[in-house]
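Morning!

This is the sequence you dropped in the shared folder:
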Amino acid sequence: MPHDTDTLHEYGFVRATKAGTLHELFDFWIEVIVTLEIPARSLRVWRRNWVLCREIKLAYANSGRVSTSQAFEWFQANQWIVEQCLPIPQRFEDEQDADVARVCQYTGLPHPRDPNLREIRAALPNSQAICYDLCQGIFCHISIFPPTHLWILFGFGVCKSDSEERTLEEIYKRLFQLHPFEEIWRAYDTGVLGDLIEPLLSAYEPGWGRRRELLYVLEAPRFPGYNWELVWRLKAAVLIEEPYLINQPGHPLRIFYGFGNAESMDDVRELKRLYRRLFRDDNVIPTELHRAAVKWELYRFVDSILGFERREQRLFRRLLRRYDYIFGESDCPPPPAFIAPP
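The structure's back. Tokens below.
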């Protein structure tokens, strides 16, 4: 995901997020840039000359993929997302208004354009406000992606692919169809939302199959002393190349996941590469990774999963060793208390 706002707008990520088609947009750009081998410079020139969509269609025609590419089929129906000079279709505006009306009716909260909504939302219990955000995202087809609080708190971090994230969105959509909003947010508040979701999961398995990890995330409010979300913040940070959390002095990611031991940017890159391998490995349960981190057993855990080569052993013994917080960052406040997961 691009970091700067201009690029997000330029490549359609802002419109795609609102339309709930962020995954499809990613697939499209990957096919255009990687498969069709169109350089970013050409895309910029085409956009500047107002011929972007025309040239993309021509490139697909020359590649012979027009009739077989799902990404091209999506592009044909959503050119207004890719090309910012095109107007937003009235159909989409009408659908958005209808979706917002459904959110208001379901949650009992006023319209997002109500001038008093911010004050009303601020007065809500935190769990109710968070579940309202999820409801709005699901009903209005707003893409949920890292490192947003919804991606972390509602288990999207357990997914290992775009298709799994889409399936989880469908699971939550079904949940909202079956249960009233008050029941859902109160279940989330007490850490029993998993009890409502678990009966639904069998309809989506074995193709989805993240039952254990998802239910563990949803049980987390029962254990407020355990900073359970840290491992998902780590996943978000390494997947989207987020530098802030990793570089922030005193942040738990530096303390428990080896970044505080890094002596160079090469060390940081090696750690990111390592964690990307772990998160993509089906044998790795992220909560077990975090258990090892808070027990200062990261090296042994990772070695048991991946098996370090001789070259890697010396490097990661240094990077994954216990971090000396007192001498490393003495000017920072002490880290929060951590409890090993139950």
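Headline: Confidence is low (pLDDT under 50) at residues 326-342.

More detail when I'm at my desk.
O.
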